[in-house]
Write a structure and sequence with these properties.
Keywords: Cell inner membrane, Cell membrane, Membrane, Transmembrane, Transmembrane helix, Ubiquinone biosynthesis. By secondary structure, the chain is α+β, with helices and mostly antiparallel strands. It is 64% helix and 7% strand. The chain folds into 5 domains: 137 residues, no CATH class; 112 residues, Phosphorylase Kinase, domain 1 (2-Layer Sandwich); 182 residues, no CATH class; 41 residues; 73 residues. α15 packs parallel to α21. It is elongated and about 135 Å long. About 1% of the residues have low confidence.
């Protein structure tokens, strides 16, 4: 079925391979065996043409970015996601992928109108009182228009680009096929689970294609931010929202990185920086639900230094266990305690095989010592997380995707805070929040919940134990009941014992042959004076005995060597 699908879409396969090859990745593709896998015989075409000559002066990161941008929205999104993986890509490539742009020419208003009317099964003028035909912004997956509801409320309408869903699903099939090939036929598949990465990427993209998920994310943020002052997200108009159309509140504000406008409006950059940092750490540590891409284009500032988060399609989620691990890791960094960091890494349950924990702890200690003399307000928490994750990956510990997204968000946050208020350090902001949550972890209420949960588990065990024991005893009465015990490594022990007995048997046989020959030699010596006939007989017997002993020894050696038991 995969083969049929592959040849049905061979044009797209060829296009993808050609783009990467034209940007200087032809040799790598050839080494991976993808040309042969797809039966694309174009290796000789990648000579020094104009495109390749122009690319020679570009870095690997620049060439990769240009390739992804040329291939369209699926690959742009892929680049944005893998830019959060410092365990896969070097820093210079990640820095280049962070520049990825998916800005494209807007699609015609006729297409916008047709899609909206199709989604709502009504005329555009009946749905919106006003609708601006010129988009506020256009990207590869959607574009945004200003509109007004019949109630008079000003809104922003996000409309999906026609045909984009079909194109993305095609690219996802191609990526899944290539990932499976690389996993099964190259050494890289043993280090990185590319198939799993593509599956996670597919899940992320499908959520972004369904605008209702973004609406639900906005509702979750709204509920979480109800506890906070000076932080908000746009309200969603659900009756004007479908899978391909998202209608949200229009908020007038200033872009976070528009510093002249912020100063002109009399806003305090230091307060903005603190509000932003506190909000991000509350999202991570308190809520376990955080903005996955907090760059300046997705954040606005309102009067009163209030923060508004936009573009909520990409979010990170941490369950209670993951939050506790991140909290422990963060406290380990703040207190420069490598044992806490190690406990958090082990708690991730991401070790593919047994590792030398002591050796890893020593390397964490070395990294910690590098920061011992550095004041807390100068430590870059995002960079420290990336160092920890890179070190963990060198031990084949696969860091969960939500943690790499989290580290990327922290690096972005630190960059924004540094520009807004160079004297503010995000680690200083996170420490009191982390302390508060750490104490909350050991609060009587929390402990009571855990004890209550444990009591319920033990209650279930006590209820089920009698019936389990009764079933076990009945099976014991069955004549066909068998119980098997298997000792780990028993085969290796059996082989060693077998070899010991083989060598012992060999030694006993050699000893027996030696005694017989010695007896013949002694007997021959004692009977030498009895006569020449007896002496000749003894010598003959001795020779025959030596030949027989030699044959026995050779036969025994051959038998042992053939059985490989010596």
């Amino acid at each position: 079925m995969v083969v049929i699908s592959r040849y049905r879409h061979i044009k797209r396969y060829r296009q993808i391979i050609l783009v990467f090859a034209r940007h200087g990745f032809g040799t790598l593709i050839d080494q991976l065996g993808i040309f042969d896998y797809l039966n694309i015989k174009i290796k000789k075409r990648f000579g020094k043409d104009k495109d390749e000559n122009s690319n020679e002066k570009l870095s690997i990161g620049e060439r990769l970015r240009l390739s992804l941008e040329e291939l369209g929205p699926t690959f742009v999104k892929l680049g944005q996601i893998i830019s959060t993986r410092p365990d896969i890509l070097p820093p210079d490539v990640i820095a280049e992928l962070e520049k990825l742009q998916d800005a494209v020419s807007p699609f015609p208003f006729e297409d916008v109108k047709s899609l909206i009317e199709s989604e709502f099964d009504d005329k555009l003028q009946n749905i919106f009182k006003e609708f601006n035909e010129i988009p506020l912004a256009a990207a590869s997956m959607a574009q945004v228009h200003l509109a007004r509801l019949n109630s008079g409320r000003k809104v922003v309408v996000k409309v999906q680009r026609p045909g984009i869903e079909r194109n993305i699903y095609l690219d996802l099939k191609v990526l899944a096929d290539l990932a499976s090939f690389i996993d099964n036929h190259t050494k890289f598949g043993k280090l990185y689970d590319f198939t799993k990465m593509v599956q996670e990427f597919e899940s992320t993209l499908k959520n972004e294609l369904d605008f209702r998920f973004e609406g639900e994310n906005a509702e979750t943020f709204k509920e979480n931010f109800s506890k906070d002052k000076g932080v908000k997200v746009p309200d969603i108009s659900w009756i004007h929202t479908t899978r391909r159309v998202l209608t949200m509140e229009y908020i007038e504000g200033i872009r976070l990185n528009d510093f002249p406008a912020l100063d002109k409006a009399g806003l305090d950059r230091r307060v903005i920086a603190r509000n932003l940092a506190v909000s991000i750490f509350n999202q991570i540590l308190r809520d376990g639900f955080f903005h996955g891409d907090p760059h300046p284009g997705n954040i606005m500032v309102m009067p009163g230094n209030a923060i508004v988060f936009l573009d909520l399609g990409m979010v990170g989620k941490l369950n209670e266990e993951r939050k506790a691990q991140f909290l422990k890791m963060l406290m380990g960094i703040a207190f420069k305690n490598s044992r806490l960091i190690i406990q958090a890494i082990v708690g991730l349950d991401a070790m593919t095989h047994h590792i030398n924990i002591k050796k890893l702890e020593k390397e964490i200690d070395i990294m910690r010592d590098k920061y011992l003399s550095v004041p807390l307000n100068e430590i870059k928490v995002g960079e420290v997380f990336n160092e920890i994750f890179n070190l963990a990956f060198s031990y084949n510990i696969v860091i969960p995707g939500e943690f790499t997204m989290l580290a990327k968000s922290l690096v972005t946050l630190e960059g924004l805070v540094e520009k807004l208020d160079p004297e503010l350090n995000v680690l200083e902001i996170s420490e009191p929040i982390a302390r508060k949550l750490m104490f909350k972890t050991f609060s009587p209420e929390k402990i009571g919940k855990e004890v209550f949960g444990g009591v319920l588990d033990y209650g279930s065990l006590l209820r089920e134990f009698p019936s389990f024991l009764l079933n076990f005893l009945r099976k014991m009465e069955d004549d066909e009941f068998t119980m098997q015990f298997k000792m780990k490594g028993i085969e290796r022990i059996e082989k060693r014992i077998d070899r010991i007995f083989t060598r012992l048997s060999f030694s006993i046989i050699l000893l027996a042959v030696s005694i017989i020959i010695a007896g013949i030699v002694v007997g021959s010596g004692m009977s030498a004076h009895t006569g020449a006939e007896i002496y000749v007989l003894n010598i003959t017997v001795l020779k025959v005995g030596l030949v027989i002993a030699g044959i026995m020894i050779v036969g025994l050696i051959l038998s042992v060597l053939r059985s490989n038991r010596f």
